[in-house]
């Protein structure tokens, strides 16, 4: 690189050197060989900050502060990516020098930015960059860096955190009605730092009241929700946590936030659902600690506080938006875990279990927009959401297996009775529920049709209905696949009632299975058919010759049948 041109980068360089530097780098930007010049410079001239002289290090500090001062006066703010990169530089310099050469780092910055909106913006970006350097678990640190970060946090708590918290309060107070962007940034900073600073600095009347006030300001309430979530998520004494959560809930309820049906903003409701989930789980953690400590009186109060949130939890769980529903599943799961530990359930608790069960069954259902032929990101997210619901169903089975079995049997029987006139998503979920019972009600070696007579009888009745109802002919791929998945899952049924094997084999072999018009169905059915035959090898002997005759044309690649425009199987699955 041009050494003379590089001198123009010095903030104290005269105008001639600066012009030369600008011209050089403009020329470098359009040069096809620029990458080689930069690569050589990196290879030959790599400096470590620690290798610089004291004077050079001081110059870097002064240059950064001078740049920060200049931002207060610029007619236009720097581009966002420049501000973010500058914040990273400040953060890296902070972790290097705070403990030794720059203990007044924050005070120097605060003295420059004051309450200037551009300065505040940069100050908050620097704070987020510092938090990322110190506590971000996605950043891999050496053991030495981890010890350094711990020492930095301890020193900050002793020397400057109260001052930082006061600056956040002043920023929120000054900008809450005039600059929503800066206010949201500040709320994000508070939420990030609250996990490792003294909670009493935030969880006090003046701060909490301000945050609750932000919940009523449309442009601030999502960030306020996230900030409150971080506050309630902070570890603390179980009784104090219970009091904090209850006081928050009282204010939120009196302000109308618990009236979910009157709120149309799904983005806000998703954040609010996450907050309610955090409050519910915090109360459950408090209950667990109090039970462990033998504090029965306060544990009972905590349980009562949990119970009063169940109605709100159910409203969010059943919400038509899956993101809102998904965010409350953790609270729901942990609540069921509490009920599992109780020796006797009250009538209200039994009603809650049934309500959760019905909500799960409803939310498992596909919606009209699901694209089965070209599954994309939305479809993948619903599949993941279904997995979360399955965990809830498994937990429901642990709390009340009899109730789950009876509920599934009721839904399954009523749906299969009229499957010809029922929408595909309702038929699919009815069969899916039967499929999911196999894991929700686990037995040894798949022996679902022996042992407990009432359970075996119920499952046997449902399987008999499944294979004799004709539902395998339903004209939707999701129903077809769920049918085959379920008969293979319960293959032991056919050792108890082998008379149903021929009709299931025909379903596998004809247009419903291996000769289906959908390549996806043909491919999956081929795999399931192999499992079905293998698991029932003793019962297959009378049918082997007929099976081979029926699939002979499918076993000859050179004479492979085609159902335009798709082959019998996916090419890579043949």
TrEMBL record:
SUPFAM superfamilies: ARM repeat. Signal peptide: none annotated. Residues 299-556 form the Exportin-T C-terminal domain. It holds the Pfam family Exportin-T. GO terms for biological process: tRNA re-export from nucleus. The keyword Aminoacyl-tRNA synthetase does not apply. One of its GO terms (cellular component) is cytoplasm. One of its GO terms (molecular function) is small GTPase binding. It is found in: Cytoplasm; Nucleus. Residues 80-228 form the Exportin-1/Importin-beta-like domain. InterPro entries: ARM-like (IPR011989), ARM-type_fold (IPR016024), Exportin-1/Importin-b-like (IPR013598), Exportin-T_C (IPR045546), XPOT (IPR040017). Keywords: Cytoplasm, Nucleus, RNA-binding, Transport, tRNA-binding. Found in a complex with XPOT, Ran and tRNA. Probably found in a complex with nucleoporins. Interacts with Ran and tRNA in a GTP-dependent manner. tRNA nucleus export receptor which facilitates tRNA translocation across the nuclear pore complex. Mediates the nuclear export of aminoacylated tRNAs. In the nucleus binds to tRNA and to the GTPase Ran in its active GTP-bound form. Docking of this trimeric complex to the nuclear pore complex (NPC) is mediated through binding to nucleoporins. Upon transit of a nuclear export complex into the cytoplasm, disassembling of the complex and hydrolysis of Ran-GTP to Ran-GDP (induced by RANBP1 and RANGAP1, respectively) cause release of the tRNA from the export receptor. XPOT then return to the nuclear compartment and mediate another round of transport. Belongs to the exportin family. This is Exportin-T. The gene is XPOT.
